[in-house]
Design goal:
single chain, alpha/beta, six-stranded mixed sheet, Nucleotidyltransferase, domain 5, 231 residues
Amino acid sequence: MSTHLQTEPLILSVETATLAGSVSLARGEEILAGFAGDAGVSHSNTLLNDIDKILSDAQVELSDIDLFAVANGPGSFTGLRIGIATVKALAATLNCPCVGISTLQAVAHSAGASPRSVALLLAGRGEVFAQLFSVTDNGFVTALDQATHISPRKLFEKYGSLESILWCGEGTIANKTLFEDHAGWRVAPPVSNLAEHVSSLALIRFRENQLEHPDALQAIYVRPSDAELKV
């Protein structure tokens, strides 16, 4: 951990829960550098190079990092394991604090302020991970229900009675036609670098002194893996 901590922490954020993934470097609320990945390339082949690239772009050393943040799920099983393992290793090696941020919470944050935001992530086989949040103007995200693994059609059974919803995330974009014609429902535009929003939520946790030891980082899967389903 940097011995010359300034008024705002230097935060390295990793998001490997989605297919493309992203990384971000921020000094407090200011984004210094970022990189959005390629959905066709495995995170295991690019993540360390992506981290090295943004550090180089910002002319920062890895040893300068004050806080590591990672999207800890739900999302791609393989991607989550890669991202969490990488952050664990870096934070432990540098004796630096870290924080795990819900991917769905970061998605809700990315869409901006709303009394009701439903964050959707692709879960494979045509299904999605879904959760309802409220998001304040100053970026505080509050969960209003539990994350679920659900088919897009069943979202209407779960949330159809709500008159005003801001739908957000890659799961929303993939199923956009389901939500467009409902009065009072809005669809948020896609966000390329979700790691920037992981960073914003990590900064809130930093200011509230709600940090974690690397060993405590755990993935939030919401549903069992295919291998577990076959047992």
